[in-house]
Write a structure and sequence with these properties.
The complex is a heterodimer of chains A (109) and B (340).
Chain A (H helix, E strand, L loop, with lengths): L19 H10 L4 E5 L4 E10 L6 E6 L4 E5 L3 E5 L11 H11 L6
Antiparallel strand pairs in A: 1-2, 1-5, 2-3, 3-4
Chain B lengths: L4 H16 L8 E4 L19 H4 L5 H11 L3 E4 L10 H10 L3 E6 L4 H6 L9 E6 L4 H7 L5 H14 L3 E8 L5 H14 L3 E6 L15 H12 L12 H7 L14 E3 L2 E5 L4 E5 L2 H7 L20 H14 L1 H13 L3
Parallel strand pairs in B: 1-2, 1-7, 2-3, 3-4, 4-5, 5-6
Antiparallel strand pairs in B: 7-8, 8-9
């Protein structure tokens, strides 16, 4: 099975490459940090752990690297850049098997 | 069945109480994840792929206890991550036992002997170490992607049993599992003296490294039918015999995703332990605002199509047991005769 293409480094133009809903969903699904650019120009880096667009005021929740939780509405998002390392990428079972074969024994995970 | 009578009674009276109150949705086991950090990186696990700043974080004991109180489930399973890496695991377990919650501490057992030596735990009917064992040495070490883990776990099991702890095993099965080897594994675990075993097919986490080897429904039924055919009298399973029959294809059940709700750093996970589609701030919010009709086999949701995992279907099996005389009779017959 081919490995899924990582979104690491992706900086989509919202409304051109993808809708805001799509980009937020991708950020929520992404196993790395992102940088959110607010309409105010402020930038916030962290991990998007929740979002809900089925409420009156759709919102996003993220933890920054210091552990503080931030909640802000979709309407304040200008852009999202996938700036952090994708922790789910490059760790495939096949890659482990390859490392194992190369080492001649099972490598440490 | 190897569950102590007191635990059976607690669960039975809890379930009957919920049904008498007319509650359609109620939790059976709280899956409490105090941290995501782990000392293994198993190929089938999609639980630990997070940035370092999240892996270094964990729930406080107070947050964990508040979730336990809010949820109200009679049983608490502590997976993770590796819960023995949680710095306050001793105090958390002590508090849960004091609240008479039946605790299943799910561990790969790498740190178990060290923690037992440190006197972190006291034997109790309410505490069971649920040791991750995916088969005999070769299969287990392959599944956890590290040599030697099986032997470490076996030593830890012996030590925990020697000290008087309840010890069970939990086994996740993937495509390619050899039913005959699994029968040998059941024998080996019984020889070790564990109280009971739990088995379940794996779930295809979208973030799990190994996507090819998850069991599809029909193949899962075939595997479990072969593996559990003519079960030996000495095999003891720490789970509902009806769930085992479901795995063998003898029942057509629907998922009960709210049966084993999950709480972690992010809140109450929607809709279940396996899928991560969002979080609710409270258990009440989880129950009331999750679009439950979007999940389960009949929903047509492709993420649920092949899932037969214990966290969704064991609660269904328990509901079946207490939902009709036929279900109750089936459970009693399977429990008494050992026939599946």
């Amino acid at each position: 099975m081919p490995e899924e293409i990582s979104l690491e480094g992706w900086a989509p133009a919202i409304g051109v490459e993808a809708t805001l809903d799509e980009v937020v969903d991708r950020a929520f699904d992404y196993r790395g940090d992102v940088t959110v650019v607010m309409t105010s120009g402020r930038e916030l880096a962290g991990y998007v752990y929740n979002r809900d667009r089925h409420v009156a005021q759709p919102y996003v929740q993220m933890f920054d690297a210091a552990g503080a939780s931030h909640t802000f509405p979709y309407s304040e998002i200008r852009a999202i850049r996938f700036t952090g390392k994708d922790t789910a990428a490059g760790q495939s079972y096949e890659a482990w098997l390859r490392r194992k074969a190369e080492a001649g024994s099972r490598p440490e995970a | 069945m190897s569950v102590p009578l007191s635990q059976m009674w607690t669960v039975a009276s809890y379930v009957l109480g919920q049904r008498l109150r007319g509650r359609r949705r109620y939790p059976l086991v709280l899956m409490l994840e105090p941290l995501f950090r782990c000392n293994l990186a198993c190929a089938g696990c999609g639980k630990i792929q997070y940035p370092g700043h999240l892996l270094r974080r964990h729930l406080t004991v107070e947050q964990a206890l508040a979730a336990v109180e809010e949820c109200g489930a009679p049983m608490v399973s502590i997976p993770g991550g590796e819960p023995l890496m949680y710095p306050d695991i001793g105090r958390l377990v002590q508090e849960l036992v004091a609240r008479k919650k039946y605790v299943y501490l799910c561990t790969n057992a790498i740190l178990l002997k060290e923690k037992l030596d440190a006197g972190l735990f006291t034997p109790s009917t309410y505490l069971s170490f649920s040791i991750h064992m995916d088969g005999l040495r070769e299969e287990h070490d392959e599944a956890v992607c590290r040599d030697g883990v099986f032997d470490v776990a076996v030593e830890a099991i012996r030590e925990a049993l020697r000290r008087g702890f309840r010890v069970t095993t939990n086994t996740t099965l993937f495509d390619g599992a050899n039913p005959l080897r699994m029968r040998e594994f059941f024998d080996a675990m019984m020889d070790l003296g564990v109280e009971g075993m739990m088995v379940s097919p794996g779930y295809s986490y979208s973030k799990a490294p190994d996507q090819e080897h998850f069991l599809r429904r029909q193949r899962a039924h075939e595997l479990f039918r072969t593996m559990l055919a003519n079960p030996k009298k000495r095999w003891r399973f720490n789970q509902s015999p009806i769930f085992l029959q479901f795995l063998m294809g003898k029942h057509d059940f629907e998922c009960t995703p709210w049966g084993n709700p999950t709480y972690n750093l992010f809140g109450w996970q929607r809709p279940c332990y396996l899928l991560q589609e969002g979080y609710a701030a409270s258990f009440k919010e989880l129950l009331e605002t999750t679009r439950w009709d979007d999940y389960g086999k009949r929903s047509g949701n492709p993420k649920c199509r092949d899932c037969m995992v214990h966290c969704g279907y064991e609660p269904t099996a328990v509901n079946y047991t207490f939902g009709s005389w036929r279900g109750f009779r089936d459970s009693v017959v399977a429990t008494v005769t050992g026939r599946l």
